[in-house]
Amino acid sequence: MPKAMARHILVNTEAEAAQLKNRIANGEAFDVLARKFSTCPSGKKGGDLGEVRPGQMVRSIDQVIFKKPLREVHGPIKSQFGYHLVQVFYRD
């Protein structure tokens, strides 16, 4: 079964996610921003989701983790939890 290693930032609004994505594009560290702004418990670990397998995450996030290009910051992606920024490091 495929697996991937990813991290994410979860916030309440699309505008907040877009602003954070812009800050990352301008050189701020993803993990530092995740610790400061993410509402997900993974934020305490810099947004690290560890290794995930298909079906472990909500569908919209699963699609990014297993189909989008590696090492790019994707999003804002809407789910029932809020808006996500997702970065995938590798997939097997």
From TrEMBL:
Primary role: PPIases accelerate the folding of proteins. It prefers amino acid residues with hydrophobic side chains like leucine and phenylalanine in the P1 position of the peptides substrates.
Key word Cytoplasm present: yes
Alphabetic keyword roster: Cytoplasm, Isomerase, Rotamase
Origin: domain of life: Bacteria
Transmembrane segments: none
Enzyme class: isomerase
EC number: 5.2.1.8
Record domain PpiC: where: 1-90
Pfam families in the record: Rotamase
Subcellular location: Cytoplasm
GO CC, one annotated term: cytoplasm
Natural source organism: Stutzerimonas zhaodongensis
Keyword DNA damage among record annotations: no
InterPro entries, sorted: PPIase_dom_sf, PPIase_PpiC, PPIase_PpiC_CS, PpiC/parvulin_rotamase
GO molecular function term, any single one: peptidyl-prolyl cis-trans isomerase activity
Reaction equation(s) it catalyzes: [protein]-peptidylproline (omega=180) = [protein]-peptidylproline (omega=0)
Family to which this protein belongs: Belongs to the PpiC/parvulin rotamase family.
Protein name (Swiss-Prot/TrEMBL): Peptidyl-prolyl cis-trans isomerase C
Main localization of the protein described in the UniProt heading: cytoplasm
Listed PANTHER family: PEPTIDYL-PROLYL CIS-TRANS ISOMERASE, PEPTIDYL-PROLYL CIS-TRANS ISOMERASE C
